[in-house]
Amino acid sequence: MSKKYITDEIEADGKFKRQKNRFTTAFGTEEGQLPVEAGRYRLLWSPACPWAHRSVIVRSLLGLQDAVSLGTLDPIRPDVGRTDWAFTLDEQGEDPVLKIKYLSEAYQKADPDYQGRFTVPAVVDLATGKVVNNDYFNLTRYWEVEWKKYHRQGAPDLYPKELREEINELNEILFHEINNGVYKAGFARSQEAYEEAYNLVFHRLDWLEERLGRSRYLFGDKITESDIRLYVTLARFDVAYYNGFLLNRSLISDFPNLWGYARDLYSQPGFGDTTDFEAIKTHYHLCAVSGNPYYLVPKGPDLSIWKIPHGRDRINYE
């Protein structure tokens, strides 16, 4: 299995700087945008990856399963000398629709000179076999807005117009200080860079703990896409980031409000049924964490605690 991961994304001071996405053409109806057509695209993901996980949660909540098919990659990276993902979970080790063995094949069809990491989520045009979008930051918003005509009846409004400015502002904070903040700590290559990221993450978790003491979700009593972005990091924290990324001040289960909130979301369709803790543990400890020469996967923590009733639906937050 390959542990080549982020060697080109470390700055001189030891800080991790995530690569920019290469395929960022938006979905829409304007000239040059990707056409919104049911059955035209395949979403590739691994349940280990938080960036991909959130696109799958939104796909599930909005009922886009029939409009956009899903291909699943093995959480263990292949030992091929590059940061690739493989379809080894599928029969004959290839995606049954695209007929490829590695994610990189779809990237290289789109750009033979592509030099970055091969990342998920990746949206592939079935007509060409090429990756057309890997813009994890905006993909959920495309599902929510541009793909609205394919939403199931009664689908939630995850990106309500009256909250979009506030959601966008919070999403920026969540990205820099939580979603990517944990990676800044885990991939730091200097003590100073690590401690800066560590402090950033826990300062924001403390702030979120207080905020979630005043409302069931981040924006009142309805789930928005900000909740999905926060959830995917919380779901990975105790099983991977706490020890693997040295974020060991507190477990999420040590925060009463954050822990109840995480279990609240986990209990709902689209969240818990797309959360694969074993895939998460396997990927991070075998492929992302350095200093594990014997490839050991932690046995714990006890995952049954995720099913403890959360009670947040009975709290009066006024």
Summarize the structure in words.
By secondary structure, the protein is mainly alpha-helical. It has nine helices and four strands, in the order βαβαββααααααα. It has a four-stranded mixed sheet, sandwiched between helices. Helix 1 packs antiparallel against helix 7 (225-244), helix 4 packs parallel to helix 7 (225-244) and helix 7 crosses helix 9. The longest helix has 21 residues, at 191-211. The model has no long low-confidence stretch (mean pLDDT 94).
Short description:
By secondary structure, the chain is mainly alpha-helical.
- SS elements, strand count: 4
Helical content (DSSP H or I, runs of 4+): 25-40%
Please indicate the percent range of residues in DSSP E strands (runs of 2 or more): 5-15%
Q: Structural class of the secondary elements?
A: mainly alpha
Major pleated sheet: 4 strands, mixed
Strand order of the largest sheet: 2-1-3-4
Coarse shape: globular
- Cα gyration radius (Å): 19 Å
Q: State the distance separating the first and last CA atoms.
A: 51 Å
Question: What is the N-to-C succession of helices and strands?
Answer: EHEHEEHHHHHHH
DSSP helix count?
A: 9
Unreliable stretches: none
Mean pLDDT: 94
